[in-house]
Write a structure and sequence with these properties.
Blueprint (H helix, E strand, L loop, with lengths): L10 H36 L4 H5 L13 E3 L2 E6 L7 H8 L12
Antiparallel strand pairs: 1-2
């Protein structure tokens, strides 16, 4: 944990710090929420359902392609296999790794 001397900081620095902390908290919560949703969608798909079928919610949003690949070093990083390859996939393929080793459901 950081040891900050808050008493020595001026008001401007404290407000900047507060903004950064609030942003970090929101980003963390968004990542956690996204990871949970991805995991639930994958499990539902594995069992032959969509998440909206199980929860009874209508699909008001555009259809999101479920993730097909997951970074083993950071489970929040996923890729559907469509569009541009994320940096972690490019790096792994550059090292000679196989795309199949990143499959979520093998």
């Amino acid at each position: 944990m950081l040891d900050l001397d808050l008493e020595a900081m001026d008001l401007g620095d404290l407000k900047k710090l507060q903004t950064k902390v609030n942003t970090a908290i929101k980003t963390y919560e968004d990542r956690q929420r996204k990871a949970a949703l991805v995991e639930l969608e994958a499990k539902a798909a594995e069992m032959g359902f969509s998440l909206s079928e199980l929860t009874g919610q209508s699909g008001r949003k555009a259809k999101v392609n479920p993730p097909k690949y997951r970074n083993p070093e950071d489970a929040t990083q996923t890729w559907s296999g469509r569009g541009r390859q994320p940096a972690w996939i490019k790096e792994a393929l550059g090292r000679g790794d196989s795309l199949d080793q990143f499959l979520i459901v093998k």
